[in-house]
Amino acid sequence: MSKNYAFSSNLMAIVACLLWSTAFVGIKIGLKYTPPLQFAGIRFMLSGIMIFPFIKHKETIVSSIAKHWKYMSLLAFMQTVIHYALFYQGIRLMPSAVSAIIIGMGPLFVSMVAHFYSDQDRMNRDKWISLCLGIIGVACVVLGRNRGEDQAASIWTIVGVVLLLLTNLNSGFVNVLIKAKTTNISPLILTMYTMFMGGLVLFITGVFTEGFAGIIFPTPYYLSLGWLSFLSAAAFSLWFTVLQRPEVKVSEINLWKFLIPVSGAILSWTMLSNESPTILSFIGMGFTSFALLWMNYSSKRNKGM
Fold first, then answer.
1. For the chain, what is the domain count?
2. pLDDT tens figures, 146-160
3. What is the pTM (predicted TM-score) of this model?
């Protein structure tokens, strides 16, 4: 991979991750007013609609969907429906800063999944060390969260952690699926379809399981919904573009996702009045951040850079 090509891929990955890191605050604000599945559904339908004007050759939309509808529908189900059903339910039970730190383990799960599906992307000693560091980081965060909670609250905290870890595992499968499937689908068309169709399924499911929440809400809800819809459209378009580049390794580009817990936690502690850091939260963030640095360093060392 040329230096300029690698730089542009890394830059797009960084921008996508920084955008994603703002989602935790927005979701917490929106969940004050509407149930999780309906909120997620409306968000992703809007994201899909936002992408449509930026597709240059709109005549290719129908032909792309007709040719690849099975793959695109599977991706919509895994990336949007399953992923965000787990994610929204998990973050509903957890502070957004803690959620950001746990979701920050995502690259480690991607590495584990890629190990079984790609001969060129196997786990090695450095990746196992990073995985262990990430697990220690999450353990610190959970221990800090459980302090002072009664038994019932502690159980729900554990449920939230499990849901977020399952979110990470699903994300690993999605990244490998995108990388393994070589297609000529435009990343914008792929993102638009997966978001709109996945959002539609989430919304309909939410109406039947949560009851229709209505459409009249305070201004903060619409501000959070608008921002979340925009960041999803922008971040996933960038991410799908990077993953479809043949020279990019899934496990290596996902290392940048370790930016999410640091940035997401800081934003949550700064913008949400009911959240504040603990010593164990900082320790957990330190472990996950060091895991990123270790994997990044070992990757460059193995390449002789």
1. 1
2. 555 555 556 777 888
3. 0.80
